[in-house]
Design a protein that fits this description.
Layout lengths: L10 H28 L21 H7 L2 H32 L7 H13 L4 H10 L17 H12 L3 H9 L4 H12 L1 H16 L3 H6 L8 H9 L19 H31 L7
Length: 291
Protein backbone atom coordinates (compact mmCIF):
# COMPACT_ATOMS: atom_id res chain seq x y z
CA UNK A 1 0.00 0.00 0.00
CA UNK A 2 1.43 3.34 -0.99
CA UNK A 3 1.26 6.21 1.45
CA UNK A 4 2.39 8.73 -1.13
CA UNK A 5 -0.51 10.66 -2.60
CA UNK A 6 -0.07 11.91 -6.12
CA UNK A 7 -0.72 15.58 -6.57
CA UNK A 8 -2.72 16.51 -9.62
CA UNK A 9 -0.67 18.53 -12.10
CA UNK A 10 -2.09 21.96 -12.79
CA UNK A 11 -1.52 24.14 -15.84
CA UNK A 12 0.87 26.28 -13.79
CA UNK A 13 2.88 23.16 -12.85
CA UNK A 14 3.22 22.12 -16.49
CA UNK A 15 4.33 25.60 -17.53
CA UNK A 16 6.74 25.82 -14.59
CA UNK A 17 8.34 22.41 -15.23
CA UNK A 18 8.56 23.05 -18.97
CA UNK A 19 10.27 26.37 -18.38
CA UNK A 20 12.75 24.83 -15.92
CA UNK A 21 13.49 22.01 -18.38
CA UNK A 22 14.19 24.50 -21.19
CA UNK A 23 16.46 26.59 -18.94
CA UNK A 24 18.29 23.42 -17.85
CA UNK A 25 18.87 22.39 -21.47
CA UNK A 26 20.13 25.88 -22.33
CA UNK A 27 22.67 25.54 -19.51
CA UNK A 28 23.67 21.95 -20.31
CA UNK A 29 24.07 22.16 -24.10
CA UNK A 30 27.10 24.51 -24.06
CA UNK A 31 28.82 22.22 -21.57
CA UNK A 32 28.06 19.18 -23.75
CA UNK A 33 29.46 21.00 -26.78
CA UNK A 34 32.69 21.87 -24.97
CA UNK A 35 32.99 18.31 -23.67
CA UNK A 36 32.35 16.74 -27.08
CA UNK A 37 34.73 18.96 -29.04
CA UNK A 38 37.51 18.43 -26.49
CA UNK A 39 37.30 14.65 -26.97
CA UNK A 40 36.78 14.71 -30.75
CA UNK A 41 39.52 13.12 -32.84
CA UNK A 42 41.40 15.73 -34.95
CA UNK A 43 40.94 13.58 -38.07
CA UNK A 44 37.12 13.85 -37.95
CA UNK A 45 36.80 17.34 -36.46
CA UNK A 46 34.85 19.80 -38.65
CA UNK A 47 34.98 23.49 -37.63
CA UNK A 48 31.72 25.31 -36.75
CA UNK A 49 29.81 22.05 -36.46
CA UNK A 50 27.74 21.25 -33.37
CA UNK A 51 28.85 18.06 -31.60
CA UNK A 52 26.49 16.56 -29.04
CA UNK A 53 28.77 13.53 -28.74
CA UNK A 54 32.19 12.92 -30.35
CA UNK A 55 32.06 10.98 -33.60
CA UNK A 56 35.42 9.50 -32.74
CA UNK A 57 36.91 9.73 -29.27
CA UNK A 58 40.46 10.97 -28.81
CA UNK A 59 42.69 12.34 -26.04
CA UNK A 60 44.96 14.19 -28.48
CA UNK A 61 43.97 17.67 -27.23
CA UNK A 62 44.45 16.68 -23.59
CA UNK A 63 47.78 15.02 -24.34
CA UNK A 64 48.98 18.16 -26.09
CA UNK A 65 47.88 20.53 -23.31
CA UNK A 66 49.27 18.37 -20.50
CA UNK A 67 52.62 18.24 -22.28
CA UNK A 68 53.01 22.03 -22.35
CA UNK A 69 55.04 23.95 -19.80
CA UNK A 70 52.55 26.84 -19.74
CA UNK A 71 49.60 24.70 -18.65
CA UNK A 72 51.63 22.91 -15.97
CA UNK A 73 52.91 26.27 -14.67
CA UNK A 74 49.37 27.66 -14.59
CA UNK A 75 48.14 24.55 -12.78
CA UNK A 76 50.89 24.84 -10.15
CA UNK A 77 50.13 28.54 -9.67
CA UNK A 78 46.40 27.93 -9.25
CA UNK A 79 46.89 25.01 -6.85
CA UNK A 80 49.32 27.05 -4.71
CA UNK A 81 47.01 30.08 -4.58
CA UNK A 82 43.98 27.90 -3.81
CA UNK A 83 45.57 25.80 -1.06
CA UNK A 84 47.54 28.55 0.71
CA UNK A 85 44.83 31.18 0.20
CA UNK A 86 42.05 28.93 1.53
CA UNK A 87 44.02 27.99 4.66
CA UNK A 88 44.85 31.63 5.42
CA UNK A 89 41.25 32.66 4.72
CA UNK A 90 39.96 30.16 7.26
CA UNK A 91 42.52 31.12 9.92
CA UNK A 92 41.97 34.89 9.61
CA UNK A 93 38.19 34.79 9.16
CA UNK A 94 37.40 32.41 12.02
CA UNK A 95 39.90 34.08 14.38
CA UNK A 96 38.57 37.57 13.74
CA UNK A 97 34.94 36.40 13.85
CA UNK A 98 35.57 34.76 17.23
CA UNK A 99 37.10 37.99 18.58
CA UNK A 100 34.09 39.98 17.38
CA UNK A 101 31.74 37.72 19.35
CA UNK A 102 33.35 38.83 22.65
CA UNK A 103 31.64 41.97 23.95
CA UNK A 104 34.41 42.70 26.45
CA UNK A 105 37.15 42.97 23.80
CA UNK A 106 38.51 46.56 23.61
CA UNK A 107 37.70 48.24 20.32
CA UNK A 108 35.10 45.63 19.33
CA UNK A 109 32.59 48.32 18.28
CA UNK A 110 34.92 50.22 15.92
CA UNK A 111 36.20 46.93 14.45
CA UNK A 112 32.64 45.82 13.72
CA UNK A 113 31.97 49.24 12.20
CA UNK A 114 34.96 48.88 9.86
CA UNK A 115 33.71 45.45 8.78
CA UNK A 116 30.22 46.76 7.98
CA UNK A 117 31.72 49.81 6.22
CA UNK A 118 33.63 47.56 3.79
CA UNK A 119 30.41 45.66 3.15
CA UNK A 120 28.80 48.85 1.83
CA UNK A 121 31.77 50.71 0.30
CA UNK A 122 34.78 49.40 -1.61
CA UNK A 123 37.97 51.21 -2.58
CA UNK A 124 37.86 50.37 -6.28
CA UNK A 125 40.38 49.06 -8.79
CA UNK A 126 42.91 51.92 -8.78
CA UNK A 127 43.38 52.21 -4.96
CA UNK A 128 43.65 48.44 -4.69
CA UNK A 129 46.29 48.36 -7.42
CA UNK A 130 48.27 51.17 -5.76
CA UNK A 131 48.08 49.32 -2.43
CA UNK A 132 49.41 46.12 -3.97
CA UNK A 133 52.12 48.09 -5.78
CA UNK A 134 53.25 49.94 -2.63
CA UNK A 135 53.39 46.66 -0.71
CA UNK A 136 55.74 45.28 -3.36
CA UNK A 137 53.40 42.43 -4.25
CA UNK A 138 53.08 43.04 -7.99
CA UNK A 139 53.84 39.96 -10.11
CA UNK A 140 53.70 37.82 -6.95
CA UNK A 141 51.30 35.06 -5.94
CA UNK A 142 50.79 36.91 -2.64
CA UNK A 143 49.06 39.73 -4.52
CA UNK A 144 46.16 37.29 -4.99
CA UNK A 145 46.18 36.13 -1.35
CA UNK A 146 46.99 38.97 1.10
CA UNK A 147 44.41 41.54 -0.14
CA UNK A 148 41.58 38.98 0.13
CA UNK A 149 42.41 37.28 3.44
CA UNK A 150 38.81 37.81 4.54
CA UNK A 151 35.65 39.66 3.59
CA UNK A 152 32.78 41.31 5.44
CA UNK A 153 30.11 38.83 4.33
CA UNK A 154 32.04 35.78 5.57
CA UNK A 155 32.92 37.52 8.85
CA UNK A 156 29.32 38.44 9.61
CA UNK A 157 27.97 34.97 8.77
CA UNK A 158 30.62 33.14 10.81
CA UNK A 159 30.29 35.60 13.70
CA UNK A 160 26.55 34.95 13.80
CA UNK A 161 27.17 31.19 13.74
CA UNK A 162 29.72 31.34 16.58
CA UNK A 163 27.33 33.42 18.68
CA UNK A 164 24.77 30.63 18.39
CA UNK A 165 27.11 28.13 20.10
CA UNK A 166 26.37 27.48 23.80
CA UNK A 167 28.48 29.81 25.93
CA UNK A 168 28.34 27.32 28.81
CA UNK A 169 30.81 25.08 26.98
CA UNK A 170 33.38 27.88 26.88
CA UNK A 171 32.81 28.65 30.58
CA UNK A 172 33.34 24.99 31.45
CA UNK A 173 36.59 24.92 29.44
CA UNK A 174 37.87 28.01 31.25
CA UNK A 175 37.06 26.45 34.62
CA UNK A 176 39.17 23.46 33.55
CA UNK A 177 42.10 25.82 32.94
CA UNK A 178 41.86 26.54 29.20
CA UNK A 179 43.15 29.85 27.92
CA UNK A 180 41.24 31.87 25.31
CA UNK A 181 43.31 30.27 22.53
CA UNK A 182 42.72 26.83 24.08
CA UNK A 183 38.97 27.43 24.20
CA UNK A 184 39.00 28.50 20.55
CA UNK A 185 41.05 25.51 19.37
CA UNK A 186 39.58 22.78 21.60
CA UNK A 187 35.94 23.85 21.93
CA UNK A 188 34.87 26.40 19.32
CA UNK A 189 36.58 24.93 16.23
CA UNK A 190 35.42 21.32 16.78
CA UNK A 191 31.85 22.61 17.13
CA UNK A 192 32.27 24.71 13.98
CA UNK A 193 33.23 21.91 11.58
CA UNK A 194 30.08 22.36 9.41
CA UNK A 195 30.96 26.05 9.02
CA UNK A 196 34.62 25.23 8.35
CA UNK A 197 33.65 22.73 5.64
CA UNK A 198 31.21 25.12 4.01
CA UNK A 199 33.57 28.09 3.94
CA UNK A 200 36.47 25.92 2.81
CA UNK A 201 34.39 25.29 -0.29
CA UNK A 202 33.49 28.97 -0.69
CA UNK A 203 37.09 30.18 -0.36
CA UNK A 204 38.57 27.38 -2.50
CA UNK A 205 36.17 28.02 -5.38
CA UNK A 206 36.86 31.76 -5.18
CA UNK A 207 40.65 31.25 -5.35
CA UNK A 208 40.43 28.60 -8.07
CA UNK A 209 38.39 30.95 -10.25
CA UNK A 210 40.70 33.93 -9.67
CA UNK A 211 40.85 35.79 -12.96
CA UNK A 212 40.64 39.59 -12.85
CA UNK A 213 43.16 40.14 -10.04
CA UNK A 214 45.56 37.68 -11.67
CA UNK A 215 45.15 39.50 -14.97
CA UNK A 216 46.12 42.92 -13.56
CA UNK A 217 48.67 41.86 -10.90
CA UNK A 218 50.62 39.08 -12.66
CA UNK A 219 52.68 40.28 -15.63
CA UNK A 220 54.87 37.18 -15.93
CA UNK A 221 53.21 34.58 -18.18
CA UNK A 222 54.92 31.81 -16.18
CA UNK A 223 52.87 32.84 -13.13
CA UNK A 224 49.49 33.00 -14.87
CA UNK A 225 46.60 31.15 -13.28
CA UNK A 226 44.50 28.65 -15.20
CA UNK A 227 41.71 31.15 -15.77
CA UNK A 228 44.06 33.70 -17.37
CA UNK A 229 45.61 31.00 -19.56
CA UNK A 230 42.16 29.81 -20.67
CA UNK A 231 41.16 33.41 -21.43
CA UNK A 232 44.29 33.80 -23.59
CA UNK A 233 43.47 30.63 -25.51
CA UNK A 234 39.73 31.16 -25.92
CA UNK A 235 39.22 34.92 -26.24
CA UNK A 236 42.55 36.10 -27.60
CA UNK A 237 42.85 33.01 -29.86
CA UNK A 238 46.51 32.87 -28.93
CA UNK A 239 48.27 29.53 -28.60
CA UNK A 240 51.71 31.10 -28.41
CA UNK A 241 51.62 30.75 -24.64
CA UNK A 242 51.37 26.98 -24.91
CA UNK A 243 55.11 26.53 -24.98
CA UNK A 244 57.15 23.42 -24.37
CA UNK A 245 54.71 20.96 -25.93
CA UNK A 246 55.80 17.43 -26.51
CA UNK A 247 53.56 17.01 -29.55
CA UNK A 248 52.91 18.86 -32.77
CA UNK A 249 50.29 21.59 -32.37
CA UNK A 250 49.51 21.55 -36.10
CA UNK A 251 48.04 18.05 -35.77
CA UNK A 252 45.55 19.24 -33.12
CA UNK A 253 42.92 21.87 -34.10
CA UNK A 254 42.99 25.04 -32.03
CA UNK A 255 39.31 24.67 -31.17
CA UNK A 256 39.80 21.26 -29.54
CA UNK A 257 42.77 22.66 -27.59
CA UNK A 258 40.62 25.52 -26.29
CA UNK A 259 37.75 23.25 -25.28
CA UNK A 260 40.10 20.79 -23.58
CA UNK A 261 41.71 23.62 -21.60
CA UNK A 262 38.24 24.76 -20.45
CA UNK A 263 37.38 21.22 -19.33
CA UNK A 264 40.65 20.86 -17.43
CA UNK A 265 40.04 24.20 -15.67
CA UNK A 266 36.52 23.14 -14.66
CA UNK A 267 37.20 19.50 -13.79
CA UNK A 268 38.55 19.87 -10.21
CA UNK A 269 35.60 21.99 -9.05
CA UNK A 270 33.09 19.74 -10.84
CA UNK A 271 34.57 16.69 -9.11
CA UNK A 272 34.64 18.29 -5.65
CA UNK A 273 31.21 19.93 -5.69
CA UNK A 274 29.03 16.76 -5.49
CA UNK A 275 30.83 15.61 -2.35
CA UNK A 276 30.56 19.00 -0.63
CA UNK A 277 27.10 19.99 -1.85
CA UNK A 278 25.45 19.24 1.52
CA UNK A 279 27.97 21.50 3.26
CA UNK A 280 27.43 24.15 0.59
CA UNK A 281 23.67 24.13 1.22
CA UNK A 282 24.19 24.14 4.97
CA UNK A 283 26.63 27.04 4.70
CA UNK A 284 23.93 29.23 3.14
CA UNK A 285 21.87 28.82 6.33
CA UNK A 286 24.72 29.38 8.80
CA UNK A 287 23.81 31.84 11.49
CA UNK A 288 20.29 32.38 10.14
CA UNK A 289 18.61 30.51 13.02
CA UNK A 290 19.54 30.72 16.68
CA UNK A 291 18.51 28.68 19.65
Amino acid sequence: MSFVSRKKMTAFDWINYTLLAVISLVCVFPFLYVFSVSFTDPDVYVPLRFYLFPEKWSLAAYSYILSTDSFLNALKSTVFITVVGTILNLVVTFSLAYVLTKKDVPGRGPMMGFVIFTLVFSAGIVPNYLLVQNLGLLNSYWSLIWPVLTNAWSLIIIKSFLESLPSELEDAARIDGCSDIGVFLRVVLPLSMPAVAAFTLFFAVSHWNTYFNALIYLSDAKKWTLQVLVKTLVIDSDNAGMAGAGGDERSVPQETIRMASIMLAMAPILLVYPFLQKHFAKGVMLGSVKG
